[in-house]
Amino acid sequence: MWSKRHEVDYALQRQRRLRALRGPQVMLEDADALDADPVLLRSATHHGEPTTVTCPVCTQGMLTNLNYVFGDQLGQFSGRIKSTAELEEMQNEYGEFTVRVVEVCTNCGWNYMISTYLLGDGTRRRPPRRQRTVEDIYG
């Protein structure tokens, strides 16, 4: 992606969390890393991008990445999950938006935000008009 900037990689915090999980005393905040929300697990199953990385906790399942997009210029589409191909298209359509990449193991529930970055062409735009959704129609 040509417009990728302000990338933050959370690899060091991820390693600290994994070391804490393997340690003699597991703190409550560290145990939360294995308590994935059911919606997150469903999203990873149906919308995630499979990787070749083995889960560092259970070592049985493969990790799945989810790309969440956020930004004022996205309007009602902020907070949605997008594929890498969709992100490449979006970087030409929007001025600036944030992508947060979360890795999820659907086997054991491990989940961690592994990186964040900005995408977009830098041109300031107004958010798109609100479009009717299924929720608007059926309540």
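[next item in queue]
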Amino acid sequence: MSEDKIKIEIWSDIMCPFCFIGKRRFEKALDTFANKEEVEVVWKSFELYPDLETDTALGIKQFLIDQKGIAEDQAEQMIDAADSLANDVGLDYDWEKIVIANTKKAHELLHLAEKESLQNEMKEVLFRAYFEEGKNVDDLNTLIALGVSVGLNEDKIKLALENDRFVAAVNFDVNEARQLGVSGVPFFVLNRKYAVSGAQSEDYFLRALQTAHFDWKNPEEAAKLREEQQKGSSCAPGSGCC
């Protein structure tokens, strides 16, 4: 991380519909943030189903029914709700084409992309591949093609994925998320001081960016404000203070 930038770490999974939605909302907030040139975004790995076996014949609706133990109409409601939110931010999910796939190799590819300063581009392409193009993100040739499309070297991709070069990096992110108490994604950590859970609104993200940036630029003043807030009077349920 560059010392002249504020670091935003985002834990997410390729197969999480709200992670792609959260990416769009965060990007819109970042576009309106006055100091966006001082922001560095790092994508961190999180596996919702680490033991998932890729099944190209399994549809998303049946996957939800099997994984969550819910009825068909409930699965349809979940898909409709996510689809509505996706449409609101200009995304066009093709639920019929989604390939249920293990995402570990896709996360490995993201770590390679980070080394080449192409991580955000790679994340975007992987999300589109999964939710809009119906591609198998656990397939080596598919991942090679996706990596090449953002500017990665084909031989480097093949070598890294075939030799599990970034498996340790993926596992490190997953363990780090566990230590931070992350139980769901997307999960945003701003400069290791502020956390935002879920695909919040554009306004919410903008306020979080402004707060984290102020703290980063004015650490002493921010610490003083936090101390003053902590000293404030308060009431607790059943305390009899009023």
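[queue empty]
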